[in-house]
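Q: Can I see a sequence and its folded structure?
A: Here is a first one.
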Amino acid sequence: LNNSGATIHDINIVRKHCSKIKGGQLHRCLNPKVTLIDLVISDVPGDELSIIGSGPTIP
């Protein structure tokens, strides 16, 4: 994908669909009664939560 000229946004979309935890999948695996607290740190100000670390807990 890197050599095809795809943007990092496009690459992350593909990666989310190939993963069992990215793109909110980790959150979906948890018991609904569990309280989840996310501590999210990004080196790029203004990043959407869903793209930081491929958003394992953000659908």
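Q: Show me another, different protein.
A: A second, unrelated one:
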Amino acid sequence: MIVHVLRFAFKEGATGAVREHVLVVMRRTASAVSVASATVGRGLGEEDGGVHAYCVGIADLDALRRYRHDPLHVAGDPQIAPRLAEIAIGPDLFDDVAADLAARILALHEDKAALHPHGAAGLAALLTA
């Protein structure tokens, strides 16, 4: 199992409707067939709604590859990125003990970025840690 976690904050001034739209798009992305489990919502202890989280559980590397290239995921990125102030990846977790798993996951990310450079650039500009 690979657990992928994103923590993100909306741009200042984002309306409730904009926030809800982004969360709907994220939930749609998380409904991809290759996702075994998911949650999208406000971070715990964030009563003011400042930090939200997106977490998906994906069975294995093959499922992660399908998820990264799923039309729901590809279509969601450009709808989400312009509305966020920042995004942090991880910590991601996995139960696969293969020493090269992190490198293989990074290679999947780079493959998607090469196929969709505009979307990758939009997300890269938001990365914090």
